[in-house]
Amino acid sequence: MSLRRVRPMGPRAWLVDSSPEEVAALAAELRSRPVPGQTAVRTGAATVLVTVLAGTAERARVELATRTVAAADTDTEPGAVHLVDVVYDGNDRERLAQELGISVDAVLARHQDQEWSVAFCGFAPGFAYLRGWELEVPRLDTPRPAVPAGSVAVAGPFSAVYPTASPGGWQLLGRTDAPIWDIDRDPPALLTPGDRIRWRAVRPRVSGASDRRSGASSAPLPAPVPSGSNLSAPVAAMTILDPGLLTLIEDEGRPGLEHLGVCASGAADTRAARQANRLVGNSRSAAVLETLGGLRLRAQQDLVVAVSGAEVEATIEPGPAASPDGAGLSPVPARTPWAVATGQVLAIGHPRRGVRVYVAVRGGVEVAPVLGSRASDVLAGLGPPALRPGQVLELGRTTTPVGAPEQAPAVPGKTSTEVRFVVGPREQQFGPAGVRALVEQDWTVSATSNRVGLRLEGAPLRRLETGELPSEPMVPGAVQVPPSGLPVVLFRDHPVTGGYPVIGVVVPDDLDVLAQLAPGARIRLRAVDARDRPRISDLL
């Protein structure tokens, strides 16, 4: 029996090797006949990612290794066909023609002469990898810091339209006004796997060009509206006097949209956010405030709040501002429901230990949900923007009793913090020596780390296999190794696909630990294998 290569992608996901021609058929086969515990299927250029429930990983692995795609299954039902108008005035036309050894007209003709199909989505919301020609187009040596929204580009065997402005290293052929991504549309992505595209060359418009080329908007969200999750309409409850450092509205995120290029996002430290909600009687999915410190807000009505996460001093000021000598300040105990009276000011200091502080207010913060969630995704630009001075926040309603004070979970300090990870799926690109180099040194968290990823500083890892890796699905906690050799641990707002090899994946329970690692903190990665992995041949 011929076995598929199945590689671990953390403790609850498997990366299945396939071929570019078979990926879509294998994914369709798995969706029609799921393996045990299967929760989602996503595709890459030549791999299929299957996530499973805890406790079902081994049974799923065995079935994935033996799963076949019948010949009839390879003829999957075609998706929608889109005709996309393109102004072929991209900056890279001449360079690409020289690299391919053909004329510019020949390049553009090749781009238009065949039908392209959506192989998979990733990188950014609505970004579809289109497969059509047999050419291999090199990426730019140095990616552009910003590619305009609507740019039509090519790289490797793929073409794509950038739905929103973003960095990118693909070669630009032209631009389109097609609404590739629109959060007000259902579904928001114009292109989904299986859809097909025909390009049509058009002349540029003299005037009246659309400003909504990508269908996305960078403007603030509309005024908060009821979500329907509370018992009555929300009410204005607090005014932001000082938003502090990157204070975001977060909930449990928007899982299940990775096939559209949208990651789950959500609170960086889910354990702390859930604890804060539990203390004030909110549901675990209620929106909270996530701040790096310095937040000050005034209560416009009597509130019940709870502060969790990083160790921080929180106080209540009797009025709009505290007295110079600090008189009249009342401390707010951590992880305890606490009353804030109308007119009083809740002030959150800067963390003494840890990074992120969570403030839950009874009723939950009410803002308009985007794709079913109130979470702020800083990479995709989805959800409410960071808080600003003078902003008024509204609350929902709840009738659940407040909770009792709780103990503090461990918050990483100055000593080295151990974080568990599962080796794979691309550890062979570094060999045993590379894995040892990863686990036998303390890494330092870089100051450039954020919700997208934690960048680690230390002795660089050496990659044994060179060449470009086809884009693969990513998961939170994936430890990517770029050409610099310095690992990047993908975090809550990570891109859903990537082309750097993943040497290992942090276990889900330890992602909350990563959320509280400050720049300069030391981290030691410990390889674990929670599963008892019998040989596949023993289970057949």
Secondary-structure content class: alpha+beta
What is the helix content? 10-25%
Fraction of residues in β-strands: 25-35%
User: What value does the Rg take, in angstroms?
Assistant: 25 Å
- Tell how many strands the DSSP assignment holds: 34
pLDDT averaged over residues: 88
Give the CA-based shape: globular
Uncertain spans, ≥5 residues at pLDDT below 50? 207-233, 532-540
Largest sheet: 7 strands, mixed
Please supply descriptive tags for the structure shown above.
7-stranded mixed beta sheet; 8 helices; 540 residues; 7-stranded antiparallel beta sheet; globular
Characterise this structure.
- Residues 207-233 and 532-540 have low confidence and may be disordered.
- The radius of gyration is 25 Å and the shape is globular.
- It is an alpha+beta fold.
- The chain starts with 5 loop residues before the first strand and ends with a helix.
- A hairpin with a 4-residue loop joins strand 1 and strand 2.
- 12% of the residues lie in helices and 29% in strands.
- It has 8 helices and 34 strands.
- The strands form 7 sheets. A 7-stranded mixed β-sheet has the order 5-13-6-7-10-9-12. The chain has a 7-stranded antiparallel β-sheet with strand order 20-19-22-17-14-25-24, with no helix packed on it. Strands 26-33-30-31-28-27-34 form a 7-stranded mixed beta barrel.
